[in-house]
Amino acid sequence: MLSQKCKYALLALMALAREPSDKLLLVSEIAERENLPRKFLEAILLELNRNGLVRSRRGRGGGYALAKPADLITFGQVVRIMDGPLAPLACVSVNYYRRCDECRDEQNCEIRRVMRRVRDAIAAELDGTSLAQALAEGRPVPGMAA
Predict the structure, then answer these.
(1) CA-CA distances (angstroms) from residue 84 to 3, 53, 98?
(2) CB-CB contact of 1 with 51 (8 Å)
(3) Residues 131, 102 share a domain
(4) Is residue 101 part of a domain?
(5) 144 — pLDDT class (breaks 50, 70, 90)
């Protein structure tokens, strides 16, 4: 399950992705548009900045913008930054692997096999979906009923 922090990060990034790349948004603007708590959002944006997903400028005319194009930022990147591994078990994690303490035969573990498929499906969807794609999915397609 996504944490509230991760969900807020995704909402903030989507708000920034809707703007032209040269436009900066204030924390208060993002918070108001997305109905997010301002203080919590400030901490989230700092973390996204440290991880290279947003850039900021201080002072008059300052604010936040995406640090790279929306088509180069995936949901998977954001989830890993905010919540850590995508895997439901450490033994199936690609980036945060850890053997289960009680495991006797990792190669033949039925639970591990199923959880690996779950992890792979989640990773495929999250790593395969950029902010730009998510925005495009939300737009009406000409000739398609809503």
Answers:
(1) 10, 16, 14
(2) no
(3) yes
(4) yes
(5) very low
Average confidence score pLDDT of the chain: 90
For the record, the structure tokens of 132 come out as 């730009």
Q: What was the pLDDT predicted at 68?
A: 96
pTM of the model as a whole: 0.86
Q: What is the pLDDT of residues 92-117, one digit of tens each?
A: 888 888 888 888 888 888 989 999 99
| Residues in contact with 8: Cβ distance below 8 Å, sequence separation at least 6, in sequence order | 34, 36, 40, 41, 44
Closest CA to 133 of 74, 76, 49, 59: 74
Query: What is the rounded CA–CA span in Å between residue 124 and residue 11?
Result: 21
| Alpha-helix residue ranges (DSSP H) falling in 18-109 | 27-34, 38-50, 75-83
| Torsion sign (Cα): 126, 56, 60, 37 | positive
Residues 53 and 96 in one domain: no
- Of these ranges, 3-12, 20-29, 99-108, the one predicted with the greatest mean pLDDT is 3-12
Structural domain of 34: 4-66
* Residue with token string 């850590």: 84
